[in-house]
Amino acid sequence: MKDQQKPTFLIAGAQKCGTSSLHAYMAQCAGVYCSAPKELHYFDDGYLTPTQDAYLKHFSLTNCSIRGESTPVYMCYPGVAQRIRQQLGAVKVIFICRDPVARAYSHYWHEVKLGWEGRTFEQAIEQELQLLQQADSLLQLDEDYLRHYSYLYRGLYDFHLSTFTAALGQDCVKVIEFEQLVKQPRAMTRECLAFVGADPAKLAELQSEPRNKSKLPLWPAYNRIAGRAEKRFGPDNLLSRLIKKSNLVERKYPAMSQSQNNLAEETLRQIAALPLFKVEAQT
Q1: Secondary structure in 3-state letters for 4-61
Q2: Which one of 4, 146, 162, 165 is separated from 246 by 20 to 30 angstroms, measured CA to CA?
Q3: What is the Cα–Cα distance from 104 to 137, expressed in whole angstroms?
């Protein structure tokens, strides 16, 4: 890739951990360019950006020396760390981590909103365990699982982070906590800006707006039609957009019950213990 066009940093996960907020905060610093749209989905098999030229085009019109994009699925998508190393070299990569069970529960309701999920939370994570127990390799995990149903898999932070430190080196990887970002957004943003080589002193007062407001479908069956249309026609098809626009209302999802929390914690322990997720299995 041409050095003057390629990104100099990535926010690579995790989903439902404040990546949209951090992306917006870092964009408010002079000399820093954050892509629009936020998620370019290039290194995860060119899901939305299929070619290198199309990817570089997102950064070609800025004079900023610090340039980045934020695609949360990079953290857990097989092979991404190696592709990043091959094409970007020792680029800086930021990760935000959150309690993995709370993250999984938020992720589940996000998929309900999108129309991809019609099971109960309990059914979804129990079936996820069964699927992972049957897999001999990450390459056996299908696209729908990786992008939509990987509720607890995405919370295996040690496993996922090890692929990036192995590919890029420890000095290129920064991890912050979701709770810290929520409580001290300016301080954490300044820390991340310094990490990517920007001048934190050029960060103005943060313009903080609510992002990814909690929404749920008024009629869940309609949104599942939207999900099926997205699977068949792509993520930006007109039918899905129309259904979601008319069927989503601002509403908080139900709080996780203690029994759901206990089941998720136990299921996560079982998943983490699978041979598939031994760190040495990646080499």
Answers
A1: CCCCCEEECCCCCCCHHHHHHHHCCECCEEECCCCCCCCCCCCCCCCCHHHHHHCCCC
A2: 146
A3: 22
Chain centroid, CA 109 distance in Å: 15
Find out if CATH 3.40.640.10 is the number for domain 9-214+252-282.
Answer: no
C-alpha span between 133 and 92 (Å, rounded): 33
With bands split at pLDDT 50, 70 and 90, how would you rate the model's confidence at 152?
very high
Long-range contacts of 253-261 (CB under 8 A, 24+ apart): 253/106, 253/109, 253/112, 253/214, 253/216, 256/101, 256/102, 256/105, 256/121, 260/105, 260/121, 260/122, 261/101
Please answer whether residues 124 and 204 qualify as being in contact, where contact means their C-beta atoms are separated by less than 8 angstroms.
Answer: no
DSSP-derived pairing of the beta strands 32-34 and 92-97? unpaired
CA distance linking residue 139 with residue 82, whole number of Å: 14
pLDDT tens digit sequence for 156-185: 999 999 999 999 999 999 999 999 999 999
